Amino acid sequence: MQSNICPLHTTETELAQSFKRLRDAASGADRLEAEIALAWDLRQRDSRRARALVAPVLKAARKTATTLRAYLIEAEIACLFDEQNAADAALSRAEMLILQLNPDAILQGDTLLCKAFLQALRGDLINGSKTLEQCIEIYATCADPLRELIGIAWFCYLESFQNPESCRARLAMLKLRAPQFAHQPALAAYIYAAEGMANFWRNPSLAVALELKATIASGQAGIRRLAINCDMNASWILHSLGDLEAASECIERVVSEANESGWPTSICTSQTRLGALLRDLGSLDQSRAALESAIAIFPNSQSSVAIANAHSTLGHTLFLQGELPAAIKNYERSIAICRQSQTFDNLIEALIDYARTLSAANKLDPALQA
């Protein structure tokens, strides 16, 4: 079964064409396909509107390629809204339709890409990378060569956090295949994002410039989640360099974009970064308010890495305010979540700060055991 080729990501010009196609579409199958194509383009630009467009298709649950793509849209959006059960259910139904319909390589690859997206958003970069490798193999056989290149670039982005040297070598090979990548915003976004993080330790100033270029390209391609993350990466690097004014400019955009998206984890993470920046600017009360706002998004979470970071960052602010018992409580909460979710990098940092706070509170034995 063949599917209409929906670009993986679209420019504003292509988005306008999708709106026009819907306006011009007659009733029946043509209009239905136009609605799903528009929803695909809007899935990160305007998730709520995209979700409304796919809802009737999901309710009808017909065994068609259009329904399969609707499930992929729903899975991605549900994950962005932290509705993990709904995301898993939609992806499972898409995978069932893959078996029943045997669609072309584009839909098969897009389904694997959706699975990798869910894994990566949950912090499982290892399995996300493995799934992405399978996706790239399928994209290599499809009728849209840009998909394979974007898949490789996204793999590089995930790799940049785990193996920067390998990422840089892979990016060099990718650029040889796509020397004009800057003219493709989606491809450019992932290349700049990967290159920025891979150069963080070697050349942080270059990393900032690349992450900001990735932010712009992501916005042009409608990849809002990546745009938010790259702007946040730039803010984090600038913060670490001591350029708090430039970091503030980035984080203001991040908070605005995250709030507009409505995605809980993005909002939580942006508030945490804001809280950390306000702390180092000396605005401890404002820092505390931002961090408490972040934690309130997932008050009972047992596994959210974003909440673990928020608790740890709040612990630091409370430590500076001299509220050691409250700081200790927040570090303990962060450590418990890190252990539950097996995020060991965050765990190490939280344990160090926890021990320091226990020592300041004259709890020397617990500090040595931490």
Calculate the terminal CA-CA distance, rounded to whole Å.
58 Å
> Could you estimate the helical fraction of the residues in percent?
over 70%
Largest sheet: none
Q: Tell me the series of helices and strands, N- to C-terminal.
A: HHHHHHHHHHHHHHHHHHH
**Per DSSP, what share of the residues sits in E-state strands of 2 or more residues?**
under 5%
Count of DSSP helices?
19
Assembly classification: single chain
Number of strands: 0
Name the shape in a single word.
globular
- Give the mean pLDDT: 93
Radius of gyration: 22 Å
Uncertain ranges: none
Molecular structure report:
By secondary structure, the chain is an all-alpha fold. The chain is built from 19 helices and no strands. It has helices spanning about 10-25, 30-40, 45-60, 65-80, 85-100, 105-120, 125-140, 145-160, 165-175, 185-200, 205-220, 225-240, 245-260, 265-280, 285-295, 305-320, 325-340, 345-360, 365-370. The longest helix is centred in the first third of the chain and has 18 residues, at about 85-100. It is globular and about 70 Å long.
